[in-house]
């Protein structure tokens, strides 16, 4: 941890992102205990915090490795020396990127990557040949959110066959995001049945998603689980019934800078801190101190509070704490986050992989 000078949370200049350390530590322990109880390896997704010190805490609690989305994140975490088993859950395409992947693979025990199509798979194979090293690969299956992944168990089987035949590809198994429900389980079971019938071993079956931590029992075929959001939690997790407001470790501290009407106040955190991610939600955050008060809209540097249903109202100059909709994107908006315990700033963490989207 980066030691912070003795500082009261009230002294932090706003807007600022704070992490309530007691809550974060409880979130880490709870998820690890759940995965231990189900005999599933824990491979937390670091895109939520982008901070090597927090990944170290997850590993100390029992995680077997980490998940990264982009190679830029892998570079930061490998430089920090905190993990030697990394899965990249993204199609890595083109020589520039596959060369980076191969160079990084020299620095860790295992750097695995996913592929959901033939072009990516062939590119990985060529990179393996260029560098004289095997590339561990999982075939990505569609988790039903309209993103990437092979569309049928038969397509997973075909790519698995291709992976076993291509030079320098080490087929290791299947990956899916998210574990959505019975459809995902049926898809994965069928794909596994087909691939195993071809005599191909499938040592890894990697599931993911924080809400899916509640349904691990429905996915006995998974050997590992990748959750990210659980480390902080946010309003999307609360909306999904997967966390309570008291489990939300990330608070955005903001100052009320204006109160143009009785029911509208303006805070100094807008979309450049909270972002405009909404998914299933209709606002952009809610206030801790004033139940019923929501961030109803935001422009870049202004958060517009709707106080019409608030049980109490802030005044100009007050500092308020906002629970954001989506903690993972908020992490990417700030240079540092403040780790807070009992009203004191215990640590200031640079968000080391902030902006590492390449
Ligand atoms: C491929 C992949 N795995 C795991 C996760 C973690 O999911 P969650 O943020 O719900 O914990 C994500 C999130 O975006 C993801 O894209």
Q: Which features characterize this protein?
A:
358 residues; alpha/beta; TIM Barrel; Lyase, Ornithine Decarboxylase, Chain A, domain 1; 2 domains; 9-stranded mixed sheet; 8-stranded parallel sheet; 10 helices; 17 strands; 29% helix; 25% strand; binds pyridoxal-5'-phosphate
Descriptive report:
29% of the residues lie in helices and 25% in strands. With 358 residues, it is α/β, with parallel strands linked by helices. It folds into two domains: 22-231, Alpha-Beta Barrel (TIM Barrel); 237-325, D-serine dehydratase-like domain (Lyase, Ornithine Decarboxylase, Chain A, domain 1), CATH 2.40.37.20. Strands 1, 10, 11, 12, 13, 14, 15, 16 and 17 form a nine-stranded mixed beta sheet that branches. The chain is elongated, with a radius of gyration of 22 Å. Pyridoxal-5'-phosphate (PLP) is lined by residues 45, 67, 89, 177, 208-210, 226-230. Pyridoxal-5'-phosphate is lined by residues 45, 67, 89, 177, 208-210, 226-230.
């Amino acid at each position: 941890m980066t030691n912070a000078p003795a500082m009261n949370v009230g002294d932090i200049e706003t807007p600022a992102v704070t992490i309530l350390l007691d809550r974060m530590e409880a979130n880490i322990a709870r998820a690890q205990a759940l995965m231990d109880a189900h005999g599933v390896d824990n491979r937390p997704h670091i895109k939520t915090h982008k901070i090597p010190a927090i990944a170290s805490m997850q590993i100390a609690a029992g995680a077997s490795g980490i998940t990264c989305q982009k190679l830029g994140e892998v570079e930061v975490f490998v430089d920090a020396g905190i993990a030697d088993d990394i899965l990249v859950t993204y199609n890595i395409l083109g020589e520039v990127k596959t060369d980076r992947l191969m160079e990084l693979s020299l620095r860790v025990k295992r750097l695995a990557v996913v592929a959901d199509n033939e072009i990516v798979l062939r590119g990985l194979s060529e990179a393996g040949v260029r560098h004289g090293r095997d590339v561990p690969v999982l075939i990505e299956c569609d988790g039903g959110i309209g993103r990437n992944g092979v569309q049928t168990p038969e397509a997973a089987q075909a790519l698995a066959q291709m992976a076993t035949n291509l030079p320098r590809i080490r087929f290791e198994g299947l990956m899916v995001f998210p574990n959505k429900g019975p459809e995902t389980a049926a898809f994965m079971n069928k794909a596994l049945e087909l691939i195993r019938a071809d005599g191909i071993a499938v040592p890894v079956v990697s599931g993911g998603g924080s809400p899916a931590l509640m349904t691990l029992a429905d996915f006995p075929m998974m050997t590992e689980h990748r959750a990210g959001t659980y480390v902080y939690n946010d309003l999307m997790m609360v909306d999904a019934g997967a966390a309570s407001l008291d489990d939300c470790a990330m608070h955005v501290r903001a100052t009320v800078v204006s109160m143009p009407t009785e029911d509208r106040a303006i805070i100094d955190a807008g979309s450049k801190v909270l972002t405009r991610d909404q998914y299933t939600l209709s606002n952009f955050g809610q206030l801790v101190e004033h139940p019923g008060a929501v961030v109803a809209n935001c422009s870049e540097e202004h958060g517009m509070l709707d106080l019409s249903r608030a049980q109490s109202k802030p005044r100009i100059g007050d500092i308020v704490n906002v629970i954001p909709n989506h903690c993972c994107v908020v992490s990417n908006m700030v240079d540092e986050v403040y780790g807070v315990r009992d009203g004191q700033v215990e640590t200031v963490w640079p968000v080391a992989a902030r902006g590492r989207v390449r």
